[in-house]
Amino acid sequence: MVGWRRRGCVKIAGLLSVVAAGFAGLCPTQAQDPLPSWNEGPAKQSIVEFVNKTTTAGSPDFILPADRIATFDQDGTLWVEHPVYPQLVYCLARVPEVVKAKPELAEVEPFKTALTGDIEAIAKLPIKDLEKLLMATLSGMSVEEFASETAKWLAAARDGRWKRPYTDLTYQPMQEVLQYLRSNGFKTYIVTGGGQDFVRAYSDRVYGIPPEQVVGTAGSTTFGYDREGKPFLTKEPRLLLDDNFAGKPEGIYLMIGRRPAAAFGNSTGDQQMLEYTKAGKGLRLAMLVLHDDPEREYAYGPALGLPDSRIGTFTQTLYDEAKKDGWTVISMKDDWKRIFAFENK
Fold first, then answer.
1. Which of 8, 71, 242, 306 fits as disulfide partner to 301, beta carbons 3.0 to 4.6 Å?
2. Among the four given CATH numbers 3.40.50.300, 3.40.50.1000, 3.30.497.10, 3.30.457.10, the one describing domain 42-79+163-335
């Protein structure tokens, strides 16, 4: 009888251990890796240590939940920006429509070059000419019409290299950072030199960032009424906020009202945002993505001897400032196990 009881107890204990192990496998634990697409190293470690130190009660680096603000550039930081910005591709797709409405533009630069579809020639256009294209193709419609047209284009357009929707080309490691920060009480914002309305059209679906947490280059709008007396806003070709370089901290102050505790970028256009972030009191995190993986994505700098680029320029001066001021430079090649969610793990 005693032996039966002993054997029964052993069986029950074994069964309980199996059940417990099953629950342990199903339930998330602190031991799970919040950044599985990152290789172990200083970059990943700096993110985890920052989160642990700033969210642990009693820590000297503790940040109050209301002040847990993290800002992210988009182009080149959250998704692919080469060979040209996706928004520019969208604008080029709208040029024929603009020229159809105003045929005289067909022989006027930059519209003449844009109509050729020659991406290399278009990329060589002066910045002022590119701005003309943006203004002409991103205005003259209601904000609702613009959102609808953007959604249609995003659903149909495909990147030339991967033949996938542009919204598939977000960086999986950065998606994990966004989620990791939010799960620890941080509010995540996109602060981009790209068009604010353009990014707002998909930010919630693609990044989990609602439109009111997108700060970008913004044009003016005009309030009016349609024939039935219904109020609406029309996008106008007048610049309201140039959210690049010094415009980024200015936009952060204007739209967010709090200095970020963490900021992520990839180019000289993000320099002032990172400087502004690091100048705050207490522990701060500043990170730059370096595109140094020509096989899985692209390689450009010209920092560290990488090819020069007008798009997403990362100069040696910026790299040196990052090293001097304690910013973390993320190497795509060395720090990321995979770049896109559609890659095999």
1. 306
2. 3.40.50.1000
